Automatic annotation (TrEMBL):
<dbReference type="GO" id="GO:0008270">
    <property type="term" value="F:zinc ion binding"/>
</dbReference>
<dbReference type="InterPro" id="IPR018551">
    <property type="entry name" value="DUF2007"/>
</dbReference>
<dbReference type="InterPro" id="IPR001876">
    <property type="entry name" value="Znf_RanBP2"/>
</dbReference>
<dbReference type="InterPro" id="IPR055999">
    <property type="entry name" value="DUF7577"/>
</dbReference>
<keyword id="KW-0863">Zinc-finger</keyword>
<dbReference type="Pfam" id="PF24463">
    <property type="entry name" value="DUF7577"/>
</dbReference>
<keyword id="KW-0479">Metal-binding</keyword>
<keyword id="KW-0862">Zinc</keyword>
<protein>
    <recommendedName>
        <fullName>RanBP2-type domain-containing protein</fullName>
    </recommendedName>
</protein>
<feature type="domain" description="RanBP2-type">
    <location>
        <begin position="78"/>
        <end position="97"/>
    </location>
</feature>
<dbReference type="Pfam" id="PF09413">
    <property type="entry name" value="DUF2007"/>
</dbReference>
Amino acid sequence: MKRIYTADNVAMAWHVRNVLEQHDIYAEVKNEKTYSIAGEIPITESLPEVWVRLFYAKRAEEIIKEHMFPNNAEGKDWVCGKCSEDNAPSFNICWNCQTSLDVNLD
Ligand SMILES: [Zn+2]
């Protein structure tokens, strides 16, 4: 297992877990309970974490990135994988053929 995401709160951890599950990646939320006693232990050990099997880690990280930063936070133009048109970073779907950025990232 590998930790692929540290969330600010339990809800966010579960959101990430659910997103991964929609992509057929089984994930576990850890530190849910320790989170509830945050303040008594170092904060870095108390934040909820999302873990996946090592085999899925790379793909899971990519999925999280695209879901947590849906507007392509790196601010780079992207090229549609279907029609090869350039798209602005703020577009989540291709302006030309409406293929979603999610599909292009797959
Ligand atoms: Zn396109």
